[in-house]
Amino acid sequence: MKIRRRIGDFYDFDQIISIVAKIFISTMTQSLYDAQIV
After folding, report:
1. CA distances from 6 to 2, 9, 18, 28 (A)
2. Which domain of life is it from (predicted)?
3. DSSP letters along 6-22, please?
């Protein structure tokens, strides 16, 4: 796999970052809810 690619591939990279960010935010929200329950 080559690290350097076309600029167009960075769009997919941004999508991956947004998906990971959504998962991270949802996980943090869930942990906050768990903390409130306890």
Report:
1. 11, 6, 20, 34
2. Bacteria
3. -GGGHHHHHHHHHHHHH
